[in-house]
Design goal:
Length: 404
Amino acid sequence: MTVRVFLEPLTGGAFAGRSLTAPALPPNERLWQLRILGWLPQWHDLPPPGMTVLAEGDRSEIKGLLSQGGLLAWLTQLDRSAAKGAGEKIRTALANHTAPPHRYGWGDNPRWQLDFSRPLIMGILNVTPDSFSDGGRLESVDEAVAQGVALAEAGADILDVGGESTRPGATPVSLEQECQRVLPVVEALAQRVKIPISVDTSKAGVMKKALAVGAGMINDVTALGGGMNTGDSTGPSSNRDGINPEALELLAATDHPIILMHMGGTPATMQEAPHYQDVVVEVFEFLEERITLCQKHGIDPKRLIADPGIGFGKSTQHNLTLLRHLPVLKGLGVPLLLGVSRKRVVGALTGEAKPEKRDVGSHVLAALGALWGGADMVRVHDVAGTRQALDTALGWSEGLEAAA
């Protein structure tokens, strides 16, 4: 019987003791929303007071609020009970949530460093004619390189170069065409900027060539699922069963960071009535499976970054639910990337129809995602505006903590 544990800190960090939904707590105390799926009926007498047991046939779940102290005390009881295995999973989730900031370095070049002690900004550099916000704006390699340099000077920590649009309704491009768009830009930028360059691609051939000319990260919207034009496109997690063996073999032989994103369906079909029983649980489980898959193929989980895929095969309500429960995904135990820049969810919240005019709303969601949601990296179009928003939010947070 599989037991799944989901922890969500309702207070902590910048908002410790200040949550509108939480009771007053002692300093440095946390309140956790705990949900366990697969809680066995024979364990029903084990939950502490205040936890709700929901039974469904021969399986059930429990959920409720526990303070940090109450959670640790209960774990001691579970260690001496038949539910010891569930207790071990709770400890793992708790350790993932409370681990110190992730740091990762690779290669001989000192620029290949990721330090998540503060949220990182990934600047979007699309060299495509059909991206939803800025497609066709950069018509030459020189223009793309100049834009990449400008993003770095504006405060980007990473550049993400993409040569194939993943907007809703987009169609795949050939390996040759994507390489023609991406490789000259990556190679030139590698000589011009002192920050890591990521390549947004699902093709092993593009990954290999881009890494050879100076890229330092891979951002795959299919989570190494075999490309955007494979798999059953009718379900919300159609890349769940797809595997890209060439990409797995290639990346297992390197030490570069890899971003794994959840996408429901393919860009061509993903917004056709997306459906989930529980979007948070399903996105978590998919990303957890992908992390395990990478580990089985020799990829160190310390190299992985998870992206819930806001806007990729999800309705506005799905996106909002993921954003509101973003801290749950910290239980994956890897850094978290949030990409909301100029997306439809911002338009739904603000009424702004034009993507290029959604930057202010994007900055708000990025700051909330980093400060409250635990996002370690935000992927954005407007780097300068995001940098100002994050500096302001983090400065406010640190001021509150100093005054507490």
